[in-house]
Specification:
- The complex is a heterodimer of chains A (about 425) and B (about 375).
- Chain A has about 425 residues and is an alpha/beta fold.
- Chain A has helices at about 5-20, 70-85, 105-120, 130-145, 160-165, 175-190, 200-220, 235-245, 260-270, 285-290, 315-325, 335-355, 360-365, and strands at about 55-60, 95-100, 125-130, 150, 165-170, 190-200, 220-230, 250-255, 275-280, 300-305, 370-375, 375-380, 390-395, 400-405.
- The radius of gyration of chain A is 24 Å and the shape is globular.
- By secondary structure, chain B is mainly α.
- Helices cover about 75% and strands about 0% of the residues of chain B.
- Chain B is built from 16 helices and 2 strands.
- In chain B, strands 1-2 form a two-stranded antiparallel sheet.
- In chain B, helix 3 (about 70-85) runs parallel beside helix 7 (about 135-155).
- Classes of the chains: A alpha/beta (about 425), B mainly alpha (about 375).
- The interface between A and B is large, with 51 and 52 residues.
Chain lengths: ~425, ~375
């Protein structure tokens, strides 16, 4: 090897280049900024969007990968809403440009895409995602940039606390739907329940936790608790334990992801368990009827809205018809309606704010009251960025989804 | 190397200086230009570079395939994140954390080092039994380790929140940190490859019986490489955790494993510079294709949104590579400045000779 001083000369050159360039540099970015909730945004961080041309809205979704089955309908719903709004003259006299991006069911990609949307595309707000992992990866970036972010379908009620004050939820929180599930089943079926949940996902774990809290508070008893792992294809171990119970519970609460719902229901029914099965909005997928078929009878689940062409709600009928006309099929999942609603909520807020400034939009969202959308009525406040919407309970009857109830919980477990 | 002519050394040092200048200006450009998107990509590249280089450091040098390295990454990520999480956040997110951890929030560097050390210690523990195996059996055993790590992460709810997202990690990872660690990792891997330990590893890879015959303790050398590799993977995990700030056990599983293995295979197993090239090629092509996904127009032709293009593109790239260049871009060779200097010099001499001939012709046109 050569003497060391050659290397030290190189290092010196490197350091001198660094030093030479430093004074001209802007004060170094502070990546050690406090974790969310960070203080209000620095408006300088976002280039002031022009007052001409389209209003750009970032729309990251997991269009490929594990979450595609619900994110694609959500993105379709959002695109439909943007087109309708533009056909009706846009917002503040300007059209909306929805930048739909695929984040590949990968949190790191989600974070990169959202950064790109904010930095390069200069979006004024971001909507998207139906799962909290991605909201938690992307949310802090919007928070730091002072860009409002409405999640289309992530239902964890703790999200605003974890991310900060720029985050809003379009759906209700899981604690709300779990409470309705518990109250509905307690009244209709009885005081004993079997509880099974997927411990491989945040959504299913949290939903089961809230269900248990509300159900035991009502005076119900969980006779048996069990878990499985998402992707399991064989539930005979869990079923054997249920069959071994001295007396069958009044109903079975099973907290599952869309991919597993059909398999579980089918295997439970094949084993001769005929009692009512209750679940959350993960059941709101065509997979339930496709996989379980007739076995899906006597299944009840809580969800955001009942999307049928013959709904008594006029807004729902209009949405289903418009969706069918554009995409040739009825909405595949309720997340289509949530995506559609989210764009309308944001457009209304921008209209009321009269500007595309992040803080102004956030304040307009916080003062949004009684705003009617497809999945219910939206009310936000500075204290609550989660709408207190009614919950729809759907029953599978005669091979079809039918409306069982629409209710608001009497009491909601604390997040 | 001792026989290299002085002019060659001049060339080599010029190239070295150019490389250092190029890296320095690239660093400054990204750091100062203020484009957060580019900066994110650069940090992600450096972290992936660490993951690929340290996997290559073990798998490439020893010829023993490890599919468990993402498990070490997860250990580094969770250990360092638990250590740096602010105390107030711990009370909310991890209420069941044991007492000494609950009231502790370490600065970044010690947390990273501890994360890396945790991964290294675990690697030594599992390395002792698994490295007695050889060939594909190690791949299966390390895959088992990955699955065990995943299950433990899901079930150790007091430490990891189970399957729920671990959030609120302070965003400490800056470009400087990532560059520093990546440089350290590359330097280590480079020196290891050219040390006697590296030569022993590669000898054992190419001819285990011969290596043993000349006194190489295969199990010991492999264990050292495994430990070093796990340490850097753990540190990379820590950097990744403090870069993304929110993650769940699902992030450290098969898809991440395949991503890293693909980058390593593209670059070439056993090549340090190949790791850098492979990571760069895979990341640049994914990112370029991803930007084309949302629609593209060439003249009057418009291609609508093509989501999934980047995954397909990557798959095609991999198939082509495996068909036409199985050893990856560089195989186990390195891009060496010395070799480039040699070529440059030869080319220059040829050019000079050609010039002289033409001059001679001009002077004497007969």
């Amino acid at each position: 090897m050569r003497p060391l001083h050659r290397w030290s000369a190189l290092v010196l050159v490197f350091l001198m280049t660094l030093a030479a360039c430093q004074p001209a540099a802007a004060p170094p970015a502070t990546p050690t900024a406090p974790a969310p909730p960070a203080p209000a945004a620095t408006p300088g961080a976002t280039a002031t969007p022009g007052t001409q041309g389209p209003i750009r809205i970032g729309a990251p979704f997991n269009l490929t990968g594990g979450l595609a089955s619900i994110d694609v309908p959500a993105a379709n719903g959002a695109r439909l809403a943007a087109e309708e709004i533009n056909a009706a003259g846009g917002v503040l006299g300007r059209p909306i440009e929805l930048l739909i991006r695929d984040t590949k069911t990968d949190p790191a990609t989600a974070a990169t895409v959202v950064t790109q949307l904010i930095e390069q595309d200069k979006v004024v707000a971001v909507i998207g995602f139906t799962d909290s992992d991605y909201v938690l990866a992307a949310g802090p970036i919007c928070q730091r940039a002072g860009i409002p972010f409405i999640t289309v379908g992530a239902t964890s009620p703790r999200l605003p606390g974890q991310v900060g004050d720029m985050l809003f939820l379009a759906p209700f929180g899981d604690n709300v739907q779990a409470a309705v599930g518990a109250e509905f089943a307690f009244e209709r079926f009885g005081k004993t329940a079997y509880l099974l949940w997927d411990k491989g996902a945040e959504y299913t774990t949290v939903l089961a936790k809230y269900f248990k809290a509300r159900f035991t508070e009502l005076g119900g008893t969980i006779v048996l608790e069990d878990t499985y792992q998402s992707g399991d294809k064989d539930f005979s171990a869990q079923i054997a334990k249920v069959k071994a119970l001295p007396q069958q519970p009044s109903f079975y609460y099973i907290s599952a992801l869309p991919d597993d719902v059909g398999t579980i229901v089918k295997q439970f029914r094949n084993a001769g368990i005929t009692g009512p099965i209750v679940g959350g909005d993960g059941y709101d997928t065509p997979l339930l009827l496709q996989v379980a078929g007739p076995a899906a009878e006597n299944v009840f689940f809580t969800t955001h809205s009942m999307l049928t062409a013959d709904s008594p709600n006029e807004q729902v009928r209009k949405f289903v018809a418009a969706y069918k006309q554009k995409y040739g099929t009825e909405p595949e999942a309720v997340f289509a309606a949530l995506g559609y609603d989210t764009v309308y909520i944001l457009a209304e807020a921008i209209q009321r704010a009269g500007s595309t400034d992040g803080q102004a939009i956030k304040r307009a969202l916080e003062s949004l009251r009684d705003f009617q959308v497809v999945t219910g009525v939206i009310n936000y406040s500075p204290q609550s960025h989660i709408p207190q919407k009614g919950v729809t309970v759907i029953e599978v009857k005669g091979g079809k989804f039918t409306l069982a109830a629409e209710q608001v919980p009497q009491k909601v477990p604390t997040p | 190397m001792q026989l290299v002519s002085p002019t060659r050394w001049g060339w080599i040092w010029t190239l070295r200086a150019l490389l250092v200048l190029a890296l320095a200006s690239a660093y400054l450009a990204v750091e100062r230009e203020g484009n957060a998107y580019l900066k994110r990509l650069a940090i992600l590249f450096l972290i992936n570079l660490m993951l690929v280089t340290s996997l290559n450091l073990f798998t490439g040098f020893t010829g023993v395939f490890s599919l468990g390295h993402v498990g070490f990454m997860a250990l580094g990520a969770y250990v360092s994140a638990i250590l740096t999480l602010p105390v107030a956040q711990k009370a909310v997110n991890l209420p069941d954390l044991p007492a000494p951890l609950a009231s502790l929030a370490l600065p970044f560097l010690p947390a990273l080092l501890l994360g890396g050390s945790a991964a290294a210690i675990v690697s030594l523990l599992i390395g002792v039994p698994t490295l007695r195996l050889s060939g594909h059996f190690v791949a299966v055993a390390t895959l088992g380790f990955l699955i065990i790590t995943h299950v433990v992460l899901i079930n150790a709810e007091a430490f990891t929140r189970g399957t729920r997202t671990f959030s609120g990690v302070p965003p400490y990872t800056t470009l400087g940190w990532a560059a520093l660690w990546a440089a350290l990792n590359l330097y280590f891997a480079w020196r290891l490859k050219h040390s006697s330990l590296g030569l022993q590893l590669m000898a054992a890879r190419d001819d285990p019986w011969g290596a043993r015959g000349v006194g190489v303790d295969i199990a010991r050398t492999r264990l050292i490489a495994f430990g070093v590799s796990a340490f850097f993977t753990g540190v990379a995990g820590g950097l990744w955790a403090h870069f993304l700030t929110a993650f769940s056990p699902n992030a450290f599983y098969f898809s991440k494993t395949f991503e890293i293995v693909v980058m390593m295979i593209v670059g070439g197993m056993g090549s340090v510079t190949g790791s850098a090239l492979g990571t760069l090629l895979v990341m640049v092509s994914t990112e370029v294709l991803r930007n084309l996904e949302s629609g593209l127009s060439i003249g009057s032709l418009t291609f609508g949104p093509l989501y999934g293009l980047s995954q397909i593109g990557l798959a095609v790239l991999l198939i082509l590579l495996i068909t036409f260049r199985r050893q990856g871009l560089l195989g186990d060779r390195e891009l060496r400045l010395e070799a480039i200097a040699e070529r440059l010099e030869l080319w220059l001499e040829k050019w000079k000779a050609a010039l002289e001939i033409s001059r001679a012709r001009k002077a004497d046109p007969s």
